[in-house]
Amino acid sequence: MKKVLVPVLAATFTLSSFNAVMAAPKESSKIKSVEFLGMDAPKTQQEKAELMYSKASVKVTYNDGTKKTVPLSYETLFKPGDVINGKIAGVTMNANGQVMTKSNGTPYVSTAPDMNSLMKVPGLPENTYYLISHYESMPKNENGLENPGTMSLSTVKMDPSTGQLTVVDIKPIDFSAVHGIWKPCAGLLTPWNTHLGSEETDPDARAHEKNPAASAVTNFMKNYYNDSTITGNPYYYGHVPEVTVDAKGATKVVKHYSMGRMAFERVKVMPDNRTVIYGIDSNPGGLFMYVADKEKNLSAGTLYAAKWVQTGTENGGSANLEWIKLGHATDKEIQKFAERTKFSDIFDATDDAVKGKAEGYKAIKTAANGGKVEWVKVKPGMKTAAAFLETHRYAAYLGATVEFNKMEGLDFNEKDNKAYVAISYQEKTMLADPTAPADDIQLPKISAGGVYELSFKPNRKTMDGKKINSHYVPVSMTGTLIGEDLAAPDADGNTANVDKIANPDNIVFSQDMRTLFIAEDSDKHENNYTWAYNVDTKKLSRILSVPGGGESTGLQMVDNLDGHTYLMNSSQNPGYVGYLSGLPFMGKDNK
User: What are the coiled-coil residue ranges (predicted)?
Assistant: First the structure.
């Protein structure tokens, strides 16, 4: 986001919202429904510059007919740069386990926290938990090189009487076993209690090969390994990392090469613990599905890409989805390719259309090559390498739809068998373009973007008639909650309707509250917001405001952590890690 930051004012924090729920006597009546009562957009300069805050509330209706309204509030766990147990939050390490510092000895600190995974790990003391947090970007090193990304592991204590969380320790996670972490963005806690993250960009291997000395990957690896002679390898980055944590706080990290290489956002593991659905945070980008060979094990599987078959243009558009198999592989197999393969081993490529046509190349358009059309041909024996190391190029090559504009977070509604996916901008490659190599998506321009609903059916077939071994195959996609562009900016400078979502990014769904939570990364709203959208009543409520210039990030829905409920929510630039308090616990004996 390119905005001018406004001063951040201190906020007063209280536990009143927690006490309002938790101090009430327990009775056997169960919650029937919740309704979020939204807050106004910030109006005063103080509100616009305020520390992340909420003036929203939640109305709880019980089965016996009684109601209770509880205020919500935002609680900060820490800010990047805070010292916790003698350690600084938001720092990064090099491959030797040393905190990376500036020439004056002070550490580089990220101002861009993102994803959170608050987890309960067997063997920890009572009311003690771990929190994994992403930091999407680090300041550039003073020598001009790219700084490695980072994740942190925090130790969190809960006050069981109020639900208040406190971070008592923090440390960066070691990624030296996987060549460091490249721009980690969104993620989730898996059903098997590991953290599944993302690397948000896939460095262009073709451009790197033309000039490796000047590439960002080379600069990154020189810095990470403290080795000025190193040449980078783009195929090490653009993957899904998985982090396992034990009771002693030891972490084990792998990257899932068999899930493809692309600009990952939030992947979603479906209830079968095998199928994973993900959109890609690039323009243009595609929609992908991975079906693992075994439950709770993402080290081997089959990768598919979607084909958009448009059926309508209203309210964000609609389409049926067909699927193209890209290939089957294991992590180890693709990692070996990554270690020894360069772009020209996989593809013949040219930007010359005359040559491309004459020599039987295929025209494609992806986020690589500067988003320009290129002509490519897969070399003999390299289809597997193409599918898993050049996933977007190969998907476009086979005819999958690579035209979505920043497809972001995705989550699943188990009761209705529906998923929700955010698309930040409905523009550029999502509009009609008769000059493009492919033009599957032809929709009206909506710069504010929107949230789309996916429907599923089991055991579908690919476009060439091969069975897909999953009960969670998306078969249609339709706009469900769409932003509204303004013809002219309003008095506060908003260029999209301030009472509707704009440029949705992170999304998570609460199964218990039947509510989709949506975080914005918008240049259309002067302040970004987090929203609550009830999928039954269709009510949209603004529940949190981020300081001007900041992005709402890091959503995680924790419906039940030892009888308490949390919506984890961070922000970038300015950076905060925290959660929304006051949410009701939807289990028994909760009144």
Answer: none
